[in-house]
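Audit log entry. Action: structure prediction of a protein-small molecule complex. Ligand: flavin-adenine dinucleotide. The ligand was supplied as SMILES and no pocket hint was given, so placement is left entirely to the predictor. Protonation state taken as written. Sequence taken verbatim from the request; no trimming, no tag removal. Recorded inputs:
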Amino acid sequence: MSVYDRLKDAVGAQGYSQDRGEIAPHLEEWRSKYKGHTQLLLKPATTAEVSAVLRICQESDTKLVTQGGNTGLVGGQIPLHGEVLLSTTRLNRIRHLDESGMTLAVEAGVTLAEVQRAADDQGLLFPLSLASEGSATIGGNIATNAGGTHVLRYGMTRALVLGLEVVLAGGAVLEMLRSLPKDNSGYDLKQVFIGSEGTLGVITAASLKLFPKPEVAVTAFAAVPTPAAALKVLGQMQHATSGMLSAFELIPRIALEFVIRHIDGTRDPLSARSSWYVLMEATGGKNANLAASFEDGMAAAIAEGTVSDAVVASSQSQAAALWKLRESISESQKREGASIKHDISVPVAAIPDFLARSTPAVLAILPGARPVSFGHLGDGNLHFNFNSPEAGDDAGFLSKWDEVQQVVHDIVKEFGGSISAEHGIGAMKVASLPRYKSHEELDVMRALKHAFDPKNILNPGKTVPPVLRL
Ligand SMILES: Cc1cc2nc3c(=O)[nH]c(=O)nc-3n(C[C@H](O)[C@H](O)[C@H](O)COP(=O)(O)OP(=O)(O)OC[C@H]3O[C@@H](n4cnc5c(N)ncnc54)[C@H](O)[C@@H]3O)c2cc1C
């Protein structure tokens, strides 16, 4: 029996496809930057089937790439070298919700939006929130340690995971689906798989931490003269609301213009133009008088000149309209043509200096490019992006990606930052990682990879740089 026949047998007739039409959408990612190929798409429906698949892969030295919702932005989920592709989308059961313990056990292929809905149905909150949440899976979120808009208050995905079920390269199942807020019984192995981008094992289920659903949300869109003013407003609003800010997003004028131009039903919420804006949200209980604290903070910022104009949403639909402006930036940027993107973080207080240093450095390489730097200011995380000049030649512009990336990442390093704040390393940054991480850190990463996947069958060539032989 051939290896492919054994794999097909392991998952049953519903569990695989060799149909080109069905496989095609799995081979290209959102930005069309990476295109892959494969002869076999596996769609296991149970942990036992994943285990059988990995046992066969290990025995036969068959390489395998795991894919969830295929929304990853660094090519990690694409079979670039003809690997077998394992889709988790049929691992889609909600296993258990513990209302009083505020925990939820779900399988890896459940979408983030479904996880949020399951919590919401019980009056609870799962606070991870990404523009890709309708397609991204919880397994993918965990494998990438996704961030999103509410990290400021609730942390990255890592902070929301209590337990995991993981299938190892040889098929062994690590049953760690605990829902314990406290567990100091030796190494916390689940942490190794969070952010491992499919290189150490296949996550099949997770136990997640839920929160009480805030009763009140105050959302505002404010014009600020500069990123330095935005930073000041962040501090002012954190103090005014006693740390109740749940989001604080920086938006440049050009991003707002892109959104208004390309996304139906959007408009500028303020009458006067400003170079920069912040979208902020605070959430809490109905007796905390949050709206009054929030408005006091805004009034103080306006009096000081750190905010020049602002609108505070007076209804849920107004708040949703403000959020739509932020969440549509990536989509509208795509419709504006080619863009070179960086997902970087620096210490929060360094953001204005970082922008002042790195923007002209990029424009020196890409004259006429349009800077569109936006993102999670409260976490020090910017999507430091550049769109091609309006009448630009996209291919010529994109050919500069590596050169630009190195200049930006070198400045990030000088600021003590990270070349990947939330999207991961995947295929995109694996070659440059040795420039920014110490030999010692890389050696430990390689040792972990070897311990969990000695035959290098899981997502080979991604995330973990090979040793350079001189
Ligand atoms: C419009 C848009 C907005 C986005 N916004 C954000 C954002 O704000 N913050 C953010 O962090 N990301 C964001 N992303 C990136 C992306 O949505 C996240 O990385 C998400 O967590 C990926 O989930 P997925 O299910 O699509 O994973 P995939 O893209 O399928 O896979 C991503 C990686 O995880 C691995 N993987 C997937 N599932 C498993 C599993 N079960 N076990 C082991 N490995 C697995 C894959 O091998 C791959 O390396 C955005 C993407 C888009 C398109």
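Audit: result stored. The mean pLDDT is 96. DSSP finds 17 helices and 19 strands in the chain.
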